TrEMBL record:
The protein's name in its UniProt record: Laccase
Cofactor(s) required for function per UniProt: Cu cation
Source superkingdom: Eukaryota
Residue ranges constituting the Plastocyanin-like domain according to the UniProt record: 44-157, 170-321, 435-565
Purpose of the protein: Lignin degradation and detoxification of lignin-derived products.
Annotated GO CC locations: apoplast
Length: 584
């Protein structure tokens, strides 16, 4: 080292400005940025909100609806202190976060924790490992997530670029449902009567319904763009009970991410996104737009035989420095050409485009061999109207609506399954005998069987650590075939196959994609069809898998995986935090 270099180094060490600059340069180098602990405070309070000319008090986080945006980087530790200042129990789920060995922070009530009682608090602490993109957080108790939700943005490590051109701006866009009534009263009434619940009154963009609804033009979400610039919309379907079509008039979107996993980019004019799912999509503003404003719209996709919110919500894409659109102009914006509400073909065509990057930097380690195979028949059912019934029987043919997997309707326990597992106190809490296949097979997508009554129980599937699992999720026609968005807590999975009709192992397995299947945490079981997923049980704990249509979850469409510890210290579930809420 020359004397001049030594003099420069001595000067830099002695100069605070030079030293700070050198540290900043080093920290900006890829792979050298230390992970951070990012802290947030969630105060759950009631707030007065007006939508559709209806003013009511709703549960919120920090008085905001939707709730605050959380931003972290891959590798960061997130610490969120939740204080419950409302008169209802509450928990929070960090939807899609792997929660590696941090199952105590996953959040579903009575699965990984007991609820945070009024006046109580709990600190959720977990690390973001191997994930980047858009996820979200929401309440996981009853139907409180109708208003308790917000985005969770995971940026790549500092210095690591996106595998696509960097957008000019990134915009979280949460698609939700608004109820003029109290959603808690809606589901309480449905469970009392045994019938279907009343539907929502509007769909929303970041909590705003827009000009297609009564007195709501002033409550319109507006995205202002500059000609020629590219924007990334971080789409999140936070709706309680509806899959949604999404489109922007006169614009093509490019999908680049799904459920915090990069995908091979593909173009689409119409998207379909199920409750629980996220997508990052690129929108490039026209260099010479034909208009100063364009409609962004959502409308439902469903095949239900029951009632549903068959309305269209509109937001506005506004160009440049043009004056904001008037109420009359907003109402007259031409809508994008969205499919009919029951267009399953459009959904299948869109869904077929998803492929993992499967690159050296972002591989797709799909299991090639399977240790345990499962076949889950997913759908609705019924409970008989017989004594004792705490309510009435307004379901089909004087029954009460129910839902099940393999004809087992999940019964929510009165204590935390994860705590019972950690303490090895299973008696009276759970049974480790969930069926691997229907005990009475039938023509799942044909004429339903005469007996559609379900059984009930808190039944789980125990798995050895590192077991490779394949699950075929088969829709049924009981009470009508319809799509079911299934969400698996604690894991991502690979979607290796899908089709219509009844799954046929002898023919369908050969068609699996084991090269670049999409990686997700929520997948819709196709209407009158099936989907096959694979994952490795490498995360010890108790993990619920459930339909993300909350009405079906309320009727019992869920089950749980109990993943045992591995032999090594870093493969074991740690003890619960000292402040974890108690059940009694």
């Amino acid at each position: 080292m020359g004397s001049s270099t030594v003099r420069r180094l001595r000067w830099c060490v002695a100069s605070p400005a030079c030293l700070l600059f050198a540290i900043a340069v080093i920290l900006a180098m890829p792979g050298l940025t230390a992970a951070r602990t990012r802290r947030y405070s969630f105060n759950v309070t009631m707030a007065t909100v007006t939508r559709l000319c209806v003013t009511k008090s709703i549960p919120t986080v920090n008085g905001r609806f939707p709730g605050p945006k959380i931003v972290v980087r891959e590798g960061d530790t997130l610490v969120v202190k939740v204080t419950n200042n409302i008169n209802k129990n509450v928990t929070f789920h960090w939807h899609g976060v792997r929660q590696l060995r941090s199952g105590w922070a996953d959040g579903p009530a009575f699965i990984t924790q007991c609820p945070i009682r009024p006046g109580g608090s709990y600190v959720y602490r977990f690390t973001i490992t191997g994930q980047r993109g858009t996820l979200w957080w929401h309440a996981h108790f009853s139907w409180l997530r109708a208003t308790l939700y917000g985005p969770l943005v995971i940026l790549p490590p500092r210095g690591v670029a996106y595998p696509f051109p960097k957008p000019h701006r990134e915009v979280p866009l949460m698609l939700g449902e608004w109820f003029n009534a109290d959603p808690e009263a809606v589901i309480r009434q449905a469970l009392q009567t045994g019938g279907g619940p009343n539907v929502s009154d509007a769909y929303t963009f970041n909590g705003l319904p827009g000009p297609t609804y009564n007195c709501s033009a002033k409550d319109t979400f507006k995205l202002r763009v500059r000609p020629g610039k590219t924007y990334m919309l971080r789409l999140i379907n936070a709706a309680l009970n509806d899959e949604l079509f999404f489109g922007v008039a006169n614009h093509t979107l490019t999908v680049v991410q799904a459920d915090a996993s990069y995908v091979k980019p593909f173009a689409a004019t119409t998207l379909v996104i199920s409750p629980g799912q996220t997508m990052d999509v690129l929108l490039t503003a026209a260099a010479n737009p034909s208009s100063q404003a364009f409609a962004i719209a959502v409308a439902p996709y469903t095949n239900t035989v029951g009632t549903f919110d068959n309305t269209t919500a509109v937001a506005a894409l506004e160009y440049g420095a043009a004056a904001p659109q008037s109420a009359a102009a907003l109402r007259s914006l031409p809508l994008p050409a969205l499919p009919e509400y029951n267009d399953t073909g459009a959904v299948a065509n869109f869904s077929a485009n998803f492929r993992s990057l499967a690159s050296a930097q972002y591989p797709a380690p799909v299991p090639r061999t399977v240790d345990r195979h499962f076949f889950f028949a997913v759908g609705l059912g019924a409970d008989p109207c017989q004594s004792p019934v705490n309510g009435t029987c307004q379901g089909p043919n004087n029954t009460r609506f129910a839902a099940s997997i393999n004809n087992v309707s999940f019964v929510m326990p009165k204590t935390s399954l994860l705590q019972a597992h950690y303490q090895r106190r299973y008696n009276g809490v759970l049974m480790a005998n969930f069926p691997a296949a229907p005990q009475m097979p039938f023509n799942y997508t044909g004429t339903p069987p005469n007996n559609t009554f379900v059984t009930h129980g808190t039944r789980v599937v125990p798995l050895r650590f590192n077991t490779t699992v394949e699950v075929v999720l088969q829709d049924t026609s009981i009470q009508g075939a319809e799509s079911h968005p299934l969400h698996l807590h604690g894991y991502d999975f690979f979607v290796v196959g899908t089709g219509f009709g009844n799954y046929d192992a002898s023919n369908d397995t050969a068609k699996y994609n084991l090269i670049d299947p999409v990686q997700r945490n929520t997948i819709s079981v196709p209407t009158a069809g099936w989907v096959a997923i694979r994952f490795v049980a490498d995360n010890p704990g108790v993990w619920i898998m459930h339909c993300h249509l909350d009405v079906h979850l309320s009727w019992g469409l869920s089950m749980a995986w109990l993943v045992n510890d591995g032999p090594l210290p870093n493969q074991k579930l740690p003890p619960p935090p000292s402040d974890i809420p108690r059940c009694s």
